[in-house]
Write a structure and sequence with these properties.
helicase; hydrolase activity; DNA binding; binds adenosine-5'-triphosphate; globular; P-loop_NTPase; 4 domains; Rossmann fold; 27 helices
């Protein structure tokens, strides 16, 4: 069977039952709905214009209390909202004109005799609002039959309970430009071929949506609403990011009233990655969710404690240059370190405060009273915010007794006196004392404007700040997505737990840790999140050809990964005497642009990537390569992912994928972190991988 073939090549039965008649009917009805929407949008725009006109003509005569003005504004907002909703609907229907559905299930409900047909597409479509859908959204309850069952007994969870019956047949369609390319009654073999065709297809630059071929184990994650915190440990290329985004689309669809896209936040590793995934939710008919770099958030929160913080990427570069650095970094991210910090914070309860009697215009509070409040009634308030509560109590009592308010100056003076009962409120100083107590190197004792925190100190200091001052939490966020979970540390998760008391999808791969030792965060996450967390392992890898996946797993000593039987060229491994020679060998692979949509040259460090980029740019430029549109050097400040050639370091290539990858590494550098670099580089390749080494082999290799 040729999946890419035109309709005329299909076997007779499949063509006749492929729904072509239905397709024409749906297309006609879609066009009619779009026409209706167009006229109601025009009407809506006219209404808004008239409301504006009415306002400007009459606003001087509106009632003095503003009621009429308020009513007008409300009506205007409602109309604008209605217009916006219709516009969204129109966009969806236009998209559906291209490909209205991709699947179908014929299902006999228990107790019935005739099968009902359900066509499944990117969104719901019915002839009129409120009438039975002709096409069901892939997220609708009945659509789960398509992903979860083959012919035979089947059931799905409807809002009113479980619906059981028999799945009589299941169909897969490919429709493009409103034309049926194929329609097959599917079975496991056909499903596999369709998946293979999807995986083997080129032409996509950024991450694809996978609605047509969501696999059973992926569907279980996407549709999981039971567990508050879902942690997915998935092999490289197992579809973690894809699944997380489809899960968000699913949650948005099913909790329309409670969850808006603005309530969902993704912690993303960098701006290029955000760009790389940014089209998926709009493609699935949802608005884009918010994204944030945890590091930028932390740096903002630490303003006032330190003027600057080291970038995560500088820390990686430091560890690449000196592997010994990793030990120190790791210690400060450990559970033991946070426990010690917690214990230290407890000892501060006694050490940091000295109470003195206070009086203002004849009213006084003695230290005994303060101590009772401080260590009694207000004990739950974090230490460095607690004195404010005592102060407020003082002010309340004073004002109640006197029946008047304290003056601004008196309040300011009082605030100063209460604050002075702390020996210090400077978190940097307190953290430094802690480091000394632990026998660790302390931070430079300099004023706030000259302080720069090393990356490994950023989150312990932020943790200490929240421990001592408290934090207000991010209540507006109702679902948090953490991608590349292995790159977040124990203190970071402890902070996330405090900031986001909401649902979470946490995903990553311990094998892709940017450290010489792999970090399995799932070992400590249950200790932080408790019983509401569920861990799921995804061991099937979809991205790479068998040749590439086997090469990468062997080099990294990884076993037990299930692969999709998709084959390609063998991995090309070569050694060169120097970097230029290796780059020279890479040139022809980059020059033949017709054979790839995206290609990457990946190095270990930022400096190596920058040097490779300028060398390649000069050489490709000389041969007439379209540098402006098809060549990018990605560094930490880059914001967009583009087609063509990308040159970058392994840690910025994380999460991305390319048709063709050329890894260029110094053969003398083979320790832990460099091994990780090679693994991450190799697993970025979809179809073709070239691993080039240059220079003398390192001592351990030549011995
Ligand atoms: N069910 C599926 N159908 C089609 N393609 C899929 C499916 N699942 C995953 N893929 C493809 O596999 C590739 C890897 O997916 P994705 O980037 O989501 O994986 P990942 O686990 O986040 O990878 P990594 O951790 O290595 O960055 C993508 O090209 C994606 O489209």
């Amino acid at each position: 069977m040729q999946l890419g073939s035109e309709n005329r090549d299909l076997p007779e039965k499949e063509q006749s039952e492929s729904g072509d008649g239905f397709l024409q009917e749906v297309l006609e009805k879609l066009r009619a709905r779009i026409r209706q929407l167009n006229s109601s949008l025009e009407e809506g725009a006219r209404e808004v214009e008239e409301m504006h006109e009415y306002y400007w003509e009459n606003y001087s005569e509106m009632d003095q209390y503003g009621y009429e003005n308020f009513d007008n504004q409300q009506a205007l907002f409602q109309q604008m909202h209605a217009n916006e909703e219709q516009l969204k609907l129109k966009r969806r229907f236009r998209k559906m004109l291209d490909s209205p559905y991709f699947g179908r299930v014929d299902f006999i409900y228990e107790g019935e005799e005739e099968a009902e047909r359900f066509y499944i597409g990117i969104g719901n479509f019915s002839e009129k609002t409120g009438s039975v859908p002709l096409i069901f959204d892939w997220r609708a309850p009945v659509s789960s039959l398509f992903y979860d069952y083959d012919q035979g007994p089947a059931s799905y969870q409807a809002p009113g309970g479980e619906m059981s019956g028999e799945l009589v047949s299941r169909w897969q369609y490919k429709i493009r430009g409103g034309k049926l390319i194929y329609g097959f009654e599917s079975d496991l073999k056909i499903d596999d071929e369709i998946l293979m065709a999807e995986l083997g297809a080129g032409g996509e630059v950024r991450l694809k949506n996978i609605v047509r071929t969501i696999q059973r184990e992926q569907n279980a994650i996407i549709r999981n609403t039971k567990d508050r915190i879902l942690v997915i440990q998935g092999a490289a290329g197992s579809g973690k990011t894809s699944v997380a985004l489809h899960r968000i689309a699913y949650l948005l669809y099913h909790n329309r009233n409670k969850l808006k896209s603005s309530n969902v936040l993704v912690l993303s590793p960098n701006s290029v990655f955000s760009d790389y995934i940014s089209h998926i939710l709009p493609e699935l008919g949802e608005e884009n969710i918010r994204e944030m770099s945890f590091d930028l958030f932390a740096y903002r929160e630490l303003r006032g404690i330190a003027a600057d913080c080291e970038d995560r990427y500088d820390q990686i570069e430091r560890c690449l240059a000196d592997p010994g650095e990793q030990e120190n970094c790791r210690n400060k991210q450990s559970e033991d370190f946070v426990e010690a910090l917690d214990y230290y914070a407890l000892t501060l309860e006694e050490e940091l405060v000295e109470f003195t009697d206070l009086s203002v215009r004849g009213y006084s509070m003695d230290s005994g009273q303060m101590i009772r409040l401080f260590y009694g009634k207000f004990l739950d308030i974090p230490l460095l915010s607690r004195m404010e509560a005592v102060q407020e109590r003082f002010v309340d009592e004073w004002e109640t007794l006197r029946g008047s308010d304290l003056t601004e100056e008196e309040l300011a003076g009082l605030k100063e006196k209460f604050a002075a009962m702390y020996e210090t409120r400077d978190v940097y100083t307190i953290y430094n004392r802690f480091l000394k107590q632990q026998g660790m190197d302390s931070l430079p004792d300099v004023p706030a404007e000259q302080r720069k925190l090393r990356y490994e100190d950023v989150y312990p200091v932020l943790y200490l700040k929240y421990r001592l001052f408290g934090n207000s939490g991010r209540k507006e966020i109702r679902h948090l997505v953490v991608d590349e979970m292995q790159d977040y540390s124990f203190p970071q998760y402890t902070i996330l737990d405090k900031l986001f008391p909401c649902g979470m999808t946490i995903l990553g791969d311990k094998a892709q840790t940017i450290e010489e030792q792999e970090q399995d965060v799932t070992a400590f996450l249950p200790g932080i999140f408790g019983k509401q967390m569920r861990k799921i392992v995804m061991n099937k890898s979809y991205r790479n050809t068998v040749e590439i996946a086997e090469y990468a797993n062997k080099a990294a000593g990884i076993s037990g990964i299930e692969l999709v039987e998709r084959h390609g060229a063998p991995v090309e491994e070569k050694s060169f005497s120097d970097r230029e020679e290796a780059l020279e060998a890479a040139l022809p692979w980059l020059a033949e642009q017709e054979n790839y949509e995206t290609a990457a040259v990946i190095a270990a460090t930022e400096e190596e990537a920058a040097r490779a980029a300028s060398w390649l740019k000069a050489r490709l430029g000389n041969s007439g390569f379209d540098l402006e549109n098809r060549f990018s050097y990605l560094d930490r400040d880059s914001t967009v992912f583009r087609k063509g050639v990308t040159v970058t370091s392994f840690y910025l290539a994380k999460g991305l994928e390319f048709d063709r990858v050329i890894g260029i590494f110094d053969s003398g550098k083979t320790d832990g972190l460099y091994r990780q670099a090679r693994y991450i580089c190799a697993t970025r390749a979809l179809h073709e991988l070239h691993m080039y080494e240059y220079g003398e082999k390192g001592e351990e290799e030549t011995r």
